[in-house]
């Protein structure tokens, strides 16, 4: 049986289908290792799932403590050689934002708890897999745990003026489909967290998004099997790591598959 298509590959496909092709060939297709400040901010955001269990601590103090812990633990979590002075500089940048985060998030924190973080999901039936940042369980406070499960993603870019980015909604839909398959519970909403902006946005997931995710899954699967997709006219080609290989691949080649 073929390996399931990863939800992250759906995001990559939306960026550029050809990036999926070159990644399947074992090429490194995207320059960013996430920046240290984004990695630290992500750790701080993940820690919010533990806030209620900390008993009595105010949110500002909790976030500052989370940042300190992330600073200590990051070299263990990502052991690829983190430079200490870069880490301290990144922690300083995150600390400036974390100072305001408590007041921005205090009203919205109920959207994120109770929850579990970094949950692996996989469905051979759907041919999809992925790791969701957080799954919120709504209804537990009323003694109705599991009444509604809400997938939530942490994004280290900034949010659009309203709602969430289209790619984020599709990715959330992918996680929602996987969660439904695992729990046999309908999942029709999701959250996107933008911690740099102190925003948590809730979105409804539509049938059209589900259809689109499944079609992209099919296309990613075909690409992983060797189909060369056409070059998009508006691909993010500036700075692309595989631009030389891409330009020498005749689009026509895909038609012989
Ligand atoms: S060069 Fe452009 S079209 Fe080719 S893989 Fe990179 S982003 Fe996609």
Provide structural commentary.
- The protein has 257 residues and is an alpha/beta fold.
- Among the domains are: 36-107, no CATH class; 112-211, Lambda Exonuclease, Chain A.
- Helices cover 44% and strands 16% of the residues.
- It is built from eight helices and six strands, in the order βαααααβββαββαα.
- It has helices spanning 7-15, 17-24, 36-47, 59-77, 84-105, 166-183, 207-224, 243-248; strands at 5-6, 115-123, 128-138, 148-154, 189-194, 199-204.
- Strands 1, 2, 3, 4, 5 and 6 form a six-stranded mixed beta sheet that branches.
- Strand 2 (115-123) and strand 3 (128-138) form a beta hairpin.
- Helix 1 (7-15) crosses helix 2 and helix 1 packs antiparallel against helix 6.
- It is globular, with a radius of gyration of 20 Å.
- The mean pLDDT is 88.
- The structure holds iron/sulfur cluster.
- This is Dna2/Cas4 domain-containing protein.
- Residues 168-246 form the DUF83 domain.
- It comes from Candidatus Methanocrinis natronophilus.
- InterPro entries: Cas4_exonuclease, Dna2/Cas4_DUF83, PDDEXK-like_dom_sf.
- Keywords: Hydrolase, Iron, Iron-sulfur, Metal-binding, Nuclease.
Q: Which descriptors apply to this entry?
A:
Lambda Exonuclease, Chain A; six-stranded mixed sheet; 44% helix; globular; alpha/beta; 257 residues; 8 helices; binds iron/sulfur cluster
């Amino acid at each position: 049986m073929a390996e399931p298509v990863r939800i992250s590959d759906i995001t990559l496909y939306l960026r550029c289908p050809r990036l999926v092709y070159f990644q399947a060939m074992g090429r490194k297709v995207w320059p960013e290792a996430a920046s240290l400040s984004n990695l630290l901010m992500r750790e701080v955001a993940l820690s919010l799932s533990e806030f209620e269990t900390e008993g009595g601590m105010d949110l500002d103090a909790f976030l500052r403590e989370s940042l300190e812990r992330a600073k200590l633990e990051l070299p263990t979590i990502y052991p690829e050689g983190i430079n200490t002075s870069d880490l301290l500089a990144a922690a300083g940048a995150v600390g400036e934002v974390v100072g305001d985060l408590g007041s921005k998030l205090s009203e919205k924190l109920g959207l994120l708890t109770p929850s579990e973080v970094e949950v692996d999901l996989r469905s051979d039936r759907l041919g999809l897999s992925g790791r969701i940042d957080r799954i919120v369980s709504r209804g537990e406070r009323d003694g109705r745990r599991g009444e509604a499960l809400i997938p939530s993603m942490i994004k280290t870019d900034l949010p659009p003026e309203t709602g969430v980015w289209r790619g984020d909604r599709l990715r959330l839909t992918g996680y929602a489909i996987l969660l439904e398959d695992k729990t046999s519970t309908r999942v029709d909403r999701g959250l996107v967290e933008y911690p740099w902006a102190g925003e948590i946005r809730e979105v409804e997931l539509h049938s059209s998004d589900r259809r689109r995710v499944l079609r992209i899954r099919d296309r990613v699967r075909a690409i992983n099997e060797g189909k060369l997709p056409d070059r998009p006219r508006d691909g993010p080609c500036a700075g692309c790591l595989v631009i030389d290989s891409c330009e020498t691949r005749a689009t026509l080649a895909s038609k012989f598959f």
